[in-house]
Write a structure and sequence with these properties.
This protein is α+β, with helices and mostly antiparallel strands and 220 residues long. The protein is built from 7 helices and 5 strands. The structure holds coenzyme A (COA).
Length: 220
């Protein structure tokens, strides 16, 4: 278990930090079951992850709150969600497909599953947290999140995240999170694309209708 780091100084990131922080995200997320599922080919993974995390960081800087440390060894991308997020604009899907190429279906599925099961109550969403692999397990991640949690505590707001392994789940439990029902990423079945054609005469392509996952009813 890591002793909490007292020497970590945290500041808000800016676009001047982009190159370094994209690299931290790529290296921190490079290994593990989610990376193996998203981009099984190791030769492709680094290039795809660079483009994907550049997009994610840009989005965080423009629309969320990005924290880093003074040495830029860590990054956390947060989004205030005071009301349910609007569906992603079509430009986002185009940018995602451009960044991830032939792996786009898995990235799209991941984002869709995360969106579908996102809590609707006001909260702040931790989309990504990463510490440079050579700096991990020294208390930096806990310090980075702790600083943001203190602000949320002062505002009386909850936080939400998706933990991608039992190991980092343990960290979040220590930081005061409670685990909810997990999601399982489909690994071997084919993907089914739900399609929608809008009414005749509409000016442009119709948006896909909003649907909610239905809770399963228990048999009485
Ligand atoms: C998860 C992460 C942000 C934690 O930051 P950190 O500075 O290493 O963490 P701290 O030193 O504050 O706390 C240590 C705890 O973090 C977690 N942790 C540390 N290294 C980890 C790693 N490579 N992968 C997953 N969790 C890790 C563990 O719970 C660890 O406690 P343990 O040693 O008792 O198992 C960082 O390890 C990381 O970037 N991991 C890879 C990317 C990732 O999994 N991000 C989170 C996605 S939900």
């Amino acid at each position: 278990m890591t002793a909490p780091s007292t020497s970590v100084t945290i500041r808000r990131a800016t676009s001047a930090d982009t190159v370094r922080l994209v690299s931290v995200l790529v290296e921190a997320f490079f290994d593990g079951p989610v990376a193996d599922w998203l981009v099984p080919d190791h030769d492709d993974r680094r290039a795809v992850y660079h483009r994907y995390f550049a997009l994610a960081l840009r989005h965080g800087l423009d629309h969320g709150h990005v924290d880093t440390t003074t040495d830029r060894s860590a990054v956390a991308i947060w989004y205030p969600r005071h009301e349910p997020a609007p569906s992603a604009p079509p430009e986002h899907q185009a940018a995602l497909e451009a960044a991830t190429g032939r792996y786009a279906p898995k990235f799209t599925l991941l984002e869709a599953m995360f969106d579908a099961f996102h809590p609707r109550e006001p909260h702040h969403y931790l989309a990504y947290v990463a510490v440079s692999p050579d700096q991990q397990s020294r208390g930096i991640g806990a310090a980075l999140l702790g600083s943001y949690h203190r602000r949320l505590d002062a505002l009386g707001l909850p936080a939400y995240l998706e933990a991608s392994s039992m190991r980092n789940r343990r960290l979040y439990l220590r930081l005061g999170y409670r685990a909810g029902p997990p999601l399982v990423l489909p690994t071997s079945g084919p993907m089914i694309w739900r399609m929608w054609r809008g009414p005749a005469g509409a000016a442009g392509p119709a948006a896909f209708p909003i649907t909610e996952p239905q809770p399963r009813r228990r048999a009485r």
